[in-house]
Structures are given as C-alpha cells and as structure tokens.
Amino acid sequence: MKAAMILLGLLMLGGCASHGATPWMQSAASCPKPTSDQEFTLNMAQNMADEGRLHASLANLETLPDTIEEVRLRKARVLRLLGSREAEPLYRSLLGTCRAAQGEHGLGQLAASRGDNVQAQQHLMRASKLAPTDEKIRNDLGVVYLNQLKLEQARFEFLTAIELRQSDTLAAANLVTLLIYQDNWTQAAELASRAGLTAQQVSDAQVRAEKLKTPVVRQAIPKDQVASSRLSEGAHP
Fold first, then answer.
1. What are the coiled-coil residue ranges (predicted)?
2. Which of 25, 66, 171, 210 fits as disulfide partner to 139, beta carbons 3.0 to 4.6 Å?
3. Is the per-residue pLDDT at 125 higher than 70?
4. Contact between residue 125 and residue 131 where contact means Cβ atoms under 8 Å apart
5. Of all residues in the chain, what percent carry a pLDDT higher than 70?
6. Are 23 and 233 in contact (CB under 8 A)?
7. CA distance 66 to 187
8. CA 18 – CA 202 distance, rounded (Å)
9. At a CB cut-off of 8 Å and minimum separation 6, what does 211 contact?
10. What is the mean pLDDT of residues 9-33?
C-alpha cells in the first residue's frame, strides 16, 4: 500500500499528458491512392468511428469497392471492434498485399482477444518484421509476451514502442504494469511520472499486474492494453 501511495504521489507531480489521435503508420508506399471522392468517404467513416458510431462507419465503408486494400483494412478494423467474425477473412485478404503488415497485426489482435497467445505472437512477429517502426504493432507484441510472462521480450517491445512514439502513453502504461508485476515500484513511479500517466492509468496497471499473478486469468488480453482497440488512428494508414 505504501508503495502504491508513493507511485500515485509521484504521478500527481508529473501531471497528465494530452491524448490526441494518432495516425496509422504508412508501411507501404505502393498502395494505390484513393480518389478524392473515396478519400472523402474514408475520412467521413473515420470520423464516425472516432465518435463511436461504428455501424454508421461500416455502412459508409460498404459504399466503397472491396478491391481497394485500404477499404478492406478499415472494414476489418470496424468489424473487429464490433466483434464480428467477418473481420478475420478481411484481414487474411490483406496478406501478400501492400497492407500485409496490418493484416498480420489484425490477425494477431484477433488471436489475442481469444486468448491464443501462441498464434497471436506468430502473427505479430511477422507484422513487426514487415513494419518494424510501427509502434502499435510493437506494443501489441509486447502485450502478448507479457501475457505469457516473457518479461524481457515484453520489456524490449514496450521500450521500442515508447521510443518510436513518445507522445503515445499506451506502451508506457503497459511497461508500468510489467514493473509493478516485478514489484519494482521505484522504476514504475519514475516511468509513470515521466510519461505523464494519469492516476486512472496507473490504477489500471496495478489491476492488470495483480491479474498476471493469477495464472487462470492470464488468457484473453484486455482491450485497453492493445493498440488500435479503438479507431482513433486517423485517416492515413
């Protein structure tokens, strides 16, 4: 309890970071550029998704041709958030295309949500090789490692994600979870303060760390640990 109070005290001194939308990484320059009308519809669908209007977002995406990889990717992401099984074949259709990294990423997220960490790790490792500078992929791979208590691998991925995009606190919050799990409260407090994590983020990290100590619950991964669990990434994949 004393350690937790120290952590929260340091956090309050560190202040809070702002949480803006983060753009999808452009991992392949060879994808055909949408027309201006298609781009308008994609942006409108994105805005609806950001507002939580996932069904409306999907309806607008369905007006666009599925021959465009970007359309299939956006639809897959919305369908995954809606819990639809139709997301998986769309992600698979991206393998071998200019959006292969995002396809592997999505398949990894789906496997992680089912608690299949082995398959999730395989997909996310392939995704990280295709797009090594995508911090969201590196974060999600770290989460899968953490869920299997592969702590050194998880730490490496979280640190990579943090250094790639220091303004995104998701990987920092996950690394705090790892440090609390190891009872390393001093480093956890320093990181939370430096990253500007909120009190709620630290509290959530503590809860996740406690759950990791109970093997029976180390299965499906909470959505708030995984990158792109909400469509806040913006309009440029």
1. none
2. 171
3. yes
4. no
5. 78
6. yes
7. 48
8. 16
9. 217, 218
10. 45
Residues 77, 228 contacting (CB under 8 angstroms): yes
The amino acid at 222:
P
Q: Which residue has the tokens 């806040």?
A: 232
How far is the C-alpha of 17 from the C-alpha of 43, rounded, in Å? 26
Indicate the helix (H) or strand (E) that contains 194.
helix 185-195
Q: What gap in Å lies between CA 123 and CA 237, rounded to an integer?
A: 19
Q: What is the mean pLDDT of residues 54-74?
A: 97
Long-range contacts of 218-221 (CB under 8 A, 24+ apart): 218/147, 218/148, 218/149, 219/115, 219/147, 220/112, 220/113, 220/114, 220/115, 221/112, 221/113, 221/115, 221/120, 221/143, 221/144, 221/147
DSSP classification of residue 222: P
Residue showing tokens 């992680």: 112
Q: Does the pLDDT of residue 114 top 60, yes or no?
A: yes
